[in-house]
Every structure is written in structure tokens, then in C-alpha cells.
Please model this.
Amino acid sequence: MHLQNEKQPGEKTGKDEQNSYEEISEKRTSKLGYILLIIMVAFVIGVGETIFSDLAGIPERPVAPSSCVLSSVRNLESLTKYSTCQDRGVPFNDIDKKFGLDEKYNGIKPQLQEIASLNASIGSNNSEVRKLENDIQRLNRDYDLSLQEKMAGEKAIADKEDIKNEITSAKAKIGILQAEIRSLESKKGPLISQIRPSVQSIERSHQEAKDYFLGKAAWFRFKVFLLTLVFILPFFAFSVFFYFKLKRKNSPYTIIFTATTTAFSILFLQVVGVFLYDILPKEWLGRIFKFFMEAPFLRYVIYYGSVILVIGIFGGIVYYIQKKVFSPAKVAIRRLKDKKCPGCSFSLDSQHAFCPNCGLRLKEKCQHCGELRIKYLPHCPNCGTDEVGKISA
Model:
């Protein structure tokens, strides 16, 4: 009579899928299964990271212009030890040669060497002057002590005349050294002025080379993004497809694809997140954030806005979980499983049609066969129909 309503074990209809109140705990696997799935997720992520690293090595990575070029010409006043980029183990690369940095840098090597030599001599003389000045301070203290001893009628430890001669000699040496320093400075100034246009030309060319490198680097990152996306997207789409397919069938194997989807989702989000981080104008965003933080009113807008945003995001997620897990229908099913009233949790007997504690209706007539059926369960135990009664308080 009711053969049209019969179905095979495990088979679900569209209505069953919409009104399924099966608990999450009933779909879990064993502890060993969890351990194996966690190992699988960690292994997939680890292999994915290794593959990402290998894919990043396929496109040719651009090389930045040599920084040693600027380190020599930007601090001419303090340049005391000159060495070429080649001496430092940093040969000129293709970008350097493309913008003529090698020729411009080599063109002022003699002047740089001479400036470095002059600065070294100036530094050495200044150190000697400081040493002599310290000696003079010490000699002055000895002279004052010797004078005090003589005034007190005591025998002086040091001879005042010898101390005076040493002071005079030290001051004379300081005068000679300072004259040499001025002479060296007078030679260095014209040299710096002579190569200043060349230095400015090198700085402009280096900035152009840097801009060119940044463009090449952006294109390199985009190619790496495409390669990693082409690799991970099929796996991600495949795992998501089978996850939802098995979930619709209420398959016990859904948890396997839950794990694989988790692993590939992490890798997919990493690829997209790194790409977005690379292309976002960080300096522009930084300036905007600094502007907001400097204005008191706007700063509090950020504070309050961030609090509201965090509460909205995390609170919304928890609200969604609570709504799905603790919906009235699912709460009723959980209590009925424990032989308790869906309304007040009072212990029930299977024969009860009403709760003896709160009077809640527990059973109603099946619209198909006319027999009593539990009001909150999706199927009639007598005819197997899937008519679901509305929950009433």
C-alpha cells in the first residue's frame, strides 16, 4: 500500500536533507582516525609548501641593482676605506649594466680613492689631536698639583718646568696637525664638488634601475602566483566538490574530504593572501592609517570600529554555530534521544503523548496513516512518511 514511500537504508530524499537533525557527534571517526587525518592534513600542507617553493624557482628571479654603488657615493664626507663592488664580492649585474651604473661608478674611482685617502688622513690627525688634548688636560692637573705642593712647602713630585715644556710641545703639535687637517680639507672639498654631478647621475640611474627592478619583481610574483594557483586550484575545487557531494548523501566518508578540503583551503588561502599582500599599496595604506591615528576623533573611530568589526565577525560565527547546533529542532531531537521532554527536559516514558511536567504535546496523528507519531521526528514509525510537525511550546 505504501510501497512508494519505501526506500533503501542510507537513502535520503530532498526533504530528508533539508530536515536532517543528525548530530555532528554521530559523524565523527575514531581517535585513530582523527590522528591519521591530522597527519594527512599536515603532510599535504608540508608537501604543498615544498611544491610552492619549487614553483617559485621556475620563473627567473630578477636581481636588484647593486647597493654597494650607493654606499660609496652617498657618504663622501665619511668615506675612509674605498673598495669597489667587485672587491666586496658584488659584481655588477645585468640591471646595473643596463642603466650604466658600472661605467658611471668606474668613471669616478680615482676621485673616490683619493677622497677615501684624504678622509683617512683627516681621521688619523683628528684622533692624534684628541689624544694630545687629553695629554694636555692631564699635564695641567699635574702642573696644578705641583704648584700646590710648592705653596704648601712640600717637595714637589714633578718638575713644573718639565710639565710646562710638555704642554707647550703638545700644543705645538696640535697646531701642526690642525694645519694639516685644513690642508687636507681644502684638497677634499674641490674633489667632492668635481664628482658631485656624477654622484647625482649615479643616484638617478640607481633609482631608475630600482624602479625597473620593482616592476620586474612584481611581474615575477604574479607569475609565481599563477603557477601556484594553477597547481592548487584543481585540488581545492576537487576536494570541495566531493565534500559537498558526500555531505549531501550523509556519507560517513565526508570526514575524509573534510580533512582534505581543510588542507587545500589553507594552501589556497595562502596563495591568494600572499598575492593580495604583495599587490596592496602598503605605503599608501600606512599613510592613511597614520593620518587616522594622528587625529583624535578619527583614532577613536578606528578603535570603536575595530571592536564592532571583531565582535561582528567572531560573534557572527559563534551565532551561526549556535543557531545550527542549538536550533529548537536539534535541541528537541537531543532531548528525545535521552528520553526527555523537548520543552523542560523532564524524563519521559515512550507511551506519553503529553509531558506530565509541562504539558507539552509529544505525539500527533500522522496525516498519512492516522496513527500516533512523535511530533518532532521527521518520519512516522508506522508508515515511514516524512511529514514533519511544527514544534510548539
About this structure: Residues 1-27, 388-393 have pLDDT under 50 and may be disordered. The radius of gyration is 42 Å. The first strand starts at residue 363 and ends at 365.
